[in-house]
Amino acid sequence: MLRRVLTVAWRDFKHTVLTKAFLFAIVGVPVLIAAVGGISAVIIATHEEPPLEGTLAVVDPTGDVAEAVAQILAESDAEDAAAEIPSLDAADLLTPDPSQMTLGRGEVRIVIERIDDDGPTIPDDVRSRVQTSDLLGAVWIPPSLLAEPTDRPAERFVLVISEGLDADHIGLIERRVGQAIVRARALRAGIDPDATAALLRRPRATTNRLLAGGTESDESEGRRALKQFLIPIAFMMLLWGASFSSGQQLLMSTIEEKSNKVMEVLLSAVSPLQLMTGKILGQGLAGLIIIAVYASMSILGLVVAAQLDLIEPMQLVLLVVYFFMAYFMVAALMAAVGSAVSDIREANSLLMPVMILLMVPLMLWMPISQAPNGLIATVFSFVPPAIPFVMILRVAADEAVPVWQIPASIAWGYACVVGMVWMAARIFRVGVLMQGKPPSPLELIRWLRYA
Question: Are the C-beta atoms of residues 372 and 394 closer than 8 Å to each other?
Fold first, then answer.
């Protein structure tokens, strides 16, 4: 019996691995990803924002906010400007006329035009200039925004913009006008905004973690973000991609062999259980090669970036343990669906609930990464088929998982694997030789009762 199972496994493994498509997936796809990443990096590095040139009107009878807008724009962009034009000084960014104040930064040049109007909104003639793109936009500052805090209602300033202004530039104008209103308030209250800002500026920390041997490791904010979010999702996507691609190949080969009658020839030499077991093992070995290649490339990337200490050896061991769990769960579902239908179109209706189950870990990635030991993470660590995906997110995160949960999830997960493979075998046994109308989910449940 074992020899027959291994023969089927080798047949599926050979027909999957020794193909141009698989070699492209193993070698070509990473090269393609690296090439696209390199090109994207060059594009991002050489990309320049479209020019922002024009006039921003500020309806402000007092003139305080208009002047503050120009100063805020100048101060916030002075460093960037100096990087491009070394001789540029922040004082050069303001014109002497307070009604015409200019920001210059390479191809970006905004003129602040103060409109002395005490009306309840932006004047119609100013709106017309915005509509015809004579102005980039116009801002109306309600007088109450500059009132004393106790008398100030929860109001907003009004900004109208021209049709061609993009989202980044709109956001820049919104932020700078809001900051300018705060500056104007401070000046009216007799507070030096620059000194206050310097006083309230939060210092950054240089954080190191003391290790058992007396050494220290970097625990900077960026590094913690990598450990909390990027590393866990990389582990889970590696697990998800390898198990799902192998399961998908199992589904396709089962449907193909059933539709072209090869399945009947195979069943003349082996039993349905032996056939299903061999196919699962063969595709599992192919999946193991995928995860080994991509994990090795990821480790190599960390070595090049001198960040190998972001992962621990035990995490790699658990990656393999949870891969087999994930693959056998996915493979059991795919083998059951593939045996019950005759073509991929019929499989789509049965695959929908399967795909929803497999998408749960992706949808829960963020809350689990933020709270690896929270209620959601703990509960779904014991809900199949999410167990391996959720657990690999947790063990790869920066926060330690309670020791008992790892062996408990492994024991319970593989118990679920046995149950899922047993149910898939019963469905496979009935459906592998059936033709005609595909079964409904309720019919698949009834097949589980067949001998």
Answer: yes
CA distance 34 to 301: 11
- Determine if the pTM surpasses 0.85: no
Where are the CATH 3.40.190 domain residues in the chain? 53-196
Q: Distance (Å, rounded) from C-alpha 232 to C-alpha 235?
A: 5
pLDDT along the chain (451 residues), means of 10: 77 76 71 77 71 82 83 59 33 34 51 84 88 88 75 73 83 85 85 82 76 66 72 86 85 81 76 82 85 81 72 86 91 85 75 80 83 87 89 84 90 92 85 72 74 47
CATH value of 53-196 in 3.40.190, 2.60.40, 3.40.210, 3.30.2320: 3.40.190
Q: What are phi and psi of 7, to 5 degrees?
A: -65, -45
For the chain, give percent helix, strand, coil, nearest 5. Answer: 65, 10, 25
| CA torsion angle 401 403 406 408 (round to 10) | -130
